[in-house]
Design goal:
The protein is an alpha+beta fold and 148 residues long. It has one domain (5-145): Roll (2,3-Dihydroxybiphenyl 1,2-Dioxygenase, domain 1). The protein contains 2 helices and 9 strands, in the order βαββββαββββ. It has helices spanning 16-27, 82-94, and strands at 5-13, 30-35, 40-44, 52-56, 70-77, 99-104, 108-114, 120-126, 144-145. A 9-stranded mixed β-sheet has the order 2-3-4-1-5-8-7-6-9, with helices on one face. Strand 6 and strand 7 form a beta hairpin. The longest helix is centred in the middle third of the chain and has 13 residues, at 82-94. It is globular. 22% of the residues are buried.
Length: 148
């Protein structure tokens, strides 16, 4: 059996601070950082750098992908190293799935694909050489293309 675990969920929200109060003050998650000029907040329960990512899009569609509110994508951790991600890449292309994105987030490396109903799914591995607990600087590093 492969080691796959739900890594994180990303929600588009209308009012970031209102949603942040709920997930921080009611659910009990801790803020780990902000990106997108403060319009994106990462929250953790302590297991990983973020189990929840909130992105404020307001009432109207904004410059970020997605004109909707609600679920943006679900991230599945699919292994412990780039070899595991390479294997997923091979399987996806072999089975005819279109990879919509490949990103190096410094703290993790990701493939993006849509499921058969058009839901975006991120398949990723964490970067074992980067300790997100001790160095939050990864949030300031620009997103880079991933080369497998």
């Amino acid at each position: 059996m492969s080691e796959v675990e739900l890594g994180h969920v990303v929600f588009y929200v209308t009012e970031l601070e209102r949603s942040l109060r709920f997930y921080r003050d009611v659910v009990g998650l801790t803020e780990t950082g902000r990106i997108f000029e403060g319009r994106g907040v990462m929250l953790t329960g302590g297991r990983t750098h973020h189990e929840l990512f909130l992105v404020e899009v307001g009432e109207q569609p904004g410059p970020l992908r997605g004109s909707r509110r609600g679920l943006y994508h679900v991230g599945w951790k699919v292994g412990e190293d780039l070899d595991a991600l390479r294997e997923k890449y091979r399987l996806l292309t072999e089975q005819g799935y279109v990879i919509t994105g490949m990103s190096d987030h410094t703290v993790s490396q990701s493939l993006y694909v849509e499921d058969p109903d058009g839901n975006e799914v991120e398949l990723y591995v964490d970067n074992p050489a980067y300790d997100w607990r001790k160095n939050p600087e990864w949030m300031k590093v620009p997103l880079r293309p991933l080369k497998l």
